[in-house]
């Protein structure tokens, strides 16, 4: 969900009530609940957040807008991110000079080029950041941790 003040990222899991709120001015990230999302917010589906990047115009949020299932590991789906959106935290570019606008446009073009190259994979249920060998040698406590906690 997008408002002029915040981005709200809502999980699609059944029973999930928490919503990630990202302040577009302070860049502060907090957890809130669904009822705090204003009804006027523009809503669109995403499949994940790749991250943030700071360019000349300010901070941008990179979100995954399309995905393709490429396989499974131990019955865990592995997805390839195939399309992205780059969302500006700023509401306007009026604070930039013509040279800064041009530089920002070039950097956005470079970023779009990098995102168009194959190689962005993710799983919502399996840890792709560690090798199978390393996962086999971790403690039971580590295995019980959520992917976010790891």
From TrEMBL:
Gene Ontology biological-process entries: phosphatidylinositol dephosphorylation
Coiled-coil regions listed: none
Annotated GO MF terms: phosphatidylinositol-3-phosphate phosphatase activity; phosphatidylinositol-4-phosphate phosphatase activity
All copies of domain SAC, residue ranges: 47-140
EC assignment: 3.1.3.64
Residues that span the membrane, as ranges: 46-64
Broad EC category: hydrolase
Single GO cellular component term: endoplasmic reticulum
Reactions catalysed according to its record: a 1,2-diacyl-sn-glycero-3-phospho-(1D-myo-inositol 4-phosphate) + H2O = a 1,2-diacyl-sn-glycero-3-phospho-(1D-myo-inositol) + phosphate; a 1,2-diacyl-sn-glycero-3-phospho-(1D-myo-inositol-3-phosphate) + H2O = a 1,2-diacyl-sn-glycero-3-phospho-(1D-myo-inositol) + phosphate
Keywords for this protein: Membrane, Transmembrane, Transmembrane helix
Top-level lineage group: Eukaryota
Cited InterPro entries: SAC_dom
Descriptive protein name: Phosphatidylinositol-3-phosphatase SAC1
Upper classification of the organism: Eukaryota, Metazoa, Chordata, Craniata, Vertebrata
Gene that this sequence comes from: Sacm1l_2
């Amino acid at each position: 969900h997008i408002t002029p003040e915040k981005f709200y990222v809502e999980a699609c899991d059944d029973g999930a009530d928490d919503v990630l709120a990202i302040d577009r001015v302070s860049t502060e990230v907090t957890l809130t609940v669904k009822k705090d999302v204003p009804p006027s917010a523009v809503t669109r589906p995403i499949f994940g957040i790749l991250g943030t990047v700071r360019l000349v115009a300010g901070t941008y949020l990179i979100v995954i807008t399309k995905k393709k299932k490429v396989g499974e590991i131990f019955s865990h789906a592995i997805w390839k991110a195939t399309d992205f959106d780059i969302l500006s935290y700023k509401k306007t570019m009026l604070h930039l000079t013509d040279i800064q606008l041009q530089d920002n446009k070039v950097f956005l073009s470079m970023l779009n080029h990098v995102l168009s190259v194959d190689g962005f994979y993710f799983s919502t249920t399996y840890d792709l950041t560690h090798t199978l060998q390393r996962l086999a040698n971790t403690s039971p406590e580590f295995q019980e941790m959520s992917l976010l906690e790891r």
